[in-house]
Design brief:
mainly alpha, 10 helices
Length: about 190
């Protein structure tokens, strides 16, 4: 995402500010273990940084929810903030927004060729298929996830009480099984 943020900064005619939390994700991971439902410290730290900046500068937060995502605007948390939803106001859907971004030269290095939604690569709230895609198409990121998984102690799991290493083993076994099926000609039986 960072190269695309740089590209965006060069394309718009207003200043942009990048907010960075005090502690790195790795430091937080060491302190808090993998995020989980009810313990979404990763999301919270991003929101807190934006909220703090907005309060300090008396700013309205422009949130990129699309016209086909209006239900996302109904949270108690958002009702307490100065926010606006320009895409909803203009009637821009997710599909419209993505098409416009492509037209402007933003392609996110093909991420949307593999994923319906783009979020933090190591988010434990993804669908299982997204982790398969990361392992297959973004092996450097998958290796980073495995490295981070080793840092978590005690590791009560990353996804469904499974560690990233558990998922890696599962995907390895699935790949192995598929290669056996296709190498023995059993594919004709499918």
């Amino acid at each position: 995402m960072y190269p695309h943020l740089d590209k965006l900064v060069n394309k718009v005619d207003f200043p942009m500010v990048r907010l960075t939390p005090k502690r790195s994700f790795a430091e937080e991971l060491n302190l808090n273990r993998w995020p989980s439902f009810g313990r979404e410290w990763c999301r919270r730290r991003k929101i807190n940084a934006v909220d703090k900046y907005a309060r300090k500068h008396n700013a309205v937060q422009l949130i990129g929810f699309a016209a086909d995502e209006t239900k996302r605007t109904k949270s108690k948390e958002l009702s307490k903030k100065a926010v606006a939803f320009p895409l909803i106001k203009w009637g821009v859907t997710e599909k419209d927004a993505l098409a416009h971004c492509y037209k402007q030269g933003f392609d996110w290095s093909g991420l949307y060729n593999h994923f319906d939604r783009v979020s933090c690569f190591c988010c434990p709230f993804k669908k299982i298929g997204d982790y398969r895609k990361i392992r297959k198409h973004y092996p450097v990121l998958w290796q980073r996830m495995l490295k981070m998984d080793k840092m978590v102690n005690p590791n009560r799991g990353f996804y469904g009480y499974k560690t990233v290493h558990d998922l890696d083993h599962r995907f390895f076994m699935e790949d192995r099984q598929l290669s056996l099926i296709f190498s023995t000609g059993a594919k004709d039986a499918l």
